[in-house]
## 1
Amino acid sequence: MPYTYYPGCSLHATGVSYDKSMRAVFGKLGLGLEELDDWNCCGATSYMSVKETVAFAITARNLALAEKNGGGDLVAPCSACYALLNKTRKFLGEAPALRADVAEALAEDDLECRLSVPVRHPLEVLMNDVGTERLAAAQTRSIADFRPACYYGCQILRPQRAMDDDPEVPMAMEDLFAALGAEPVDYPPRTRCCGGMLMATAEEVAVKLCEELIGWAQERDANCIVTVCPLCQGNLDILGRRAELVGGGRPIPVLYFTQLLGLALGCTRRELGIQHGLIPLTVEARPLPVEPAAVGMEA
């Protein structure tokens, strides 16, 4: 059964390279990925500050659509979407009065949310449903020259964990890329906040947080930062580019984990949307060496 794909707003806008690389990677692996028809914004965090019931109803509509369409597990790449969709499943399952109010709202659209479809992150899908052994078998290009600083951010680790991993020291991306021949650096701030939407409301705070994250990667001689979140990618990409222009510091390209994985699987840079990054990626994924064919001995 194909996975049901919930891109959310970012992946159809500023995070388009995440969308492209998601589709490219799943396509290379032969995994069905069908975009949820008529999906709407998950509400992010702003809706909760307006009216809680409305916010849950807006998010639950996507869950109801996934159930109605009869597709597979709902895959949400955006960390905010992943967190909020799972939060909605949890709260509706534990609060009967809230669930009744949401059910009444959904009924006006002839929808029902039975909470029967799990919400999953693509990192977890690729690690658990596919696995590093199969990913390595599908690899056609070497990423041995990559030294990624693997950055998870906040929302896929707490309160609902996308991976069966230590929420303080997750290692899923490190394990993935090490299995494919890369050399992930030791990156202690892997779960720190990038500032998120503070970039629009308290810019000086977000800038300081992002500068620290970039600085850690530079100190460890990383040649790219790899993340799972479109907001994290956007903040670090913009701040990294600004630092390069203003201070002349060493720029570090900021990739989605699906982009680096896609390079290993033989996808082109254009297929993966790498051209959309503000900081050029200068490291190459080179063709894997071909084992020489065995030469038969003459009798």
Note: Residues 3-120 form a domain with the Glutathione S-transferase Yfyf (Class Pi); Chain A, domain 2 fold (CATH 1.20.1050.140).
## 2
Amino acid sequence: MHVPDHSLILRDALRVVLLRDLRALDSQIAAYPDDESIWKTAPGISNSGGTLVLHLAGNLRHFFGTVLGGSAYARNREAEFSMRGLSRAELQQEVQATLVEIEAALERIEDAQLAAAYPLPIGDRRVRTAEFLVHLAVHLAYHLGQLDYHRRILTPHAGVVDTMSIRELPAHKDP
């Protein structure tokens, strides 16, 4: 019996889920009725949909794109939470850039990197790269759910966006 390469399985799983969720993020942005509505906030909620998009793109482009993929992206976390007024098309461009950088980074990551400590301390800790990459995928899903609720709460007649479709996961084929 052939023993699967667990690092390859992890990279493939991360690629499938991250790219699916970034496509869903793009769909959520497109589902807002206009550019202004993505920047609205509800009482008791400090982040707009646009802020969530900028935060997700900045987070993933930094931790995947720059640190692991060697991209030239320079994160400005403060701007992720203070910038306003970008159009939906501009936000979607950020998502597309994030897709490209994640794919490039996942091509570069080697097995030894997944088992080793992530190159940067996270907070005041060193964590294994594999766990941190799973954390980043879960972080994306968490905020993607927030964005879905934000859109449905603040926009009249908001439709349903199939945010995390199981149909986008590849079917398993036994060897």
Note: The chain has a mean pLDDT of 90.
## 3
Amino acid sequence: MKRMLLIMIFTMTAISACKQEKKISGDKEKITFSIDETVIPQDTTMLWVADGNPSKDTVAILLQGGPKDELSFISQRKTQWRYLPNYDEFYRVHLHQANTLNPGMFYSDGKFTMEMARKEIDHTSEMVYRAIKYFKDRKKTVYVMGHSYGAFVIPHYLATRPALADKYVMASGRISDPQNVVAVHAKGFNGTYQEGSIFLTDEGTKDFTDYDEASLKYYTRKQLLKAAIGEPSYTEELKDVDLTNSIYVYNSKDKRVGGLTEQELEFLRSKGFQIYETDHSHGNTIYGLVDAIEQGNVKL
């Protein structure tokens, strides 16, 4: 019975994904949702949980990895960004994503398609835009910092909305996610990178024996969100966007998202990024940024 359920979930995911054309969905695009679509509240301050002193001149908007069904700061009350030497100089805004504001997207009955995933990604970028604008309207300096999935959110926002922030920091993301990886995610599967370059899919190898229906939905829908945000080539989408005063931190042997290719690195150099390579593993590349700052190699 569980095997049949698994086949049905992955088959529905693959069929839904294959029917869609690749594009960055716009805010005005109208599609039909078979589950509850994320509704962004009119009160912009409901989009985040903040800590620190609100009178600080600089606001750090922090984008977590995932995609998850909860804002980690709510449960943990801390973040790895706290190790930044100047962390206390920021008013810290832990921003929701569509998937944390509307976690039901992972579990609701009905199909979750690539078309819907693209729209939810667009909602997340809209939330980033509204948060930045809220603080810029109040004359604040705004930094946007994203790790892992959060580092994918930033280029999507920049490709679809005005670049309003004063600085962007991306750690453990990609600028051009390999399309074979996007295709695997679009089918509802995940995988890892060998030596940061060879992607090994878990399709046909992962043991789903202990997964119940809710766990399978969570697993597959996470992959569709990753496919939707990874399918655009941001080296192309961002070619005319001013990205000076930005920072990129990566591990060339990253097992989770892979290492940046020479094409990606050349794009970052051409846009004026400060680039720092670290040996810290995927979940700890923020520590590499800390090292870079303390050694004077990167300014934040």
Note: The mean pLDDT is 92.
## 4
Amino acid sequence: MKKAVVFVVMVLISAWSSLAFAGEGKMIGTVAAIKMQGNVAEMTLKDRKTDSMVVLQVRDASTLEKMKDNKIKVGDELRIRFDDGSKVIKKVQKTAGC
């Protein structure tokens, strides 16, 4: 009986954890275009794996500041995490080292 309860609990936990991370997308891509619109920016990236163009929105202040200071510019290769539904960037990191 204990084994059945443990098995059911493990199945429920694994099903819940997969649903919690279902809305996050990850990609590595090269910046093709940046369009600033006030306190929101649209960044077009070329996906490294599929060679398709993906348009994502940038809303957080720190990433917008990096774009204004040209720390993130066209031609940079970035590692990005974003929300699949709204296409809003959560985290940006350059792939180049030091």
Note: The helical segments are 2-20, 61-68.
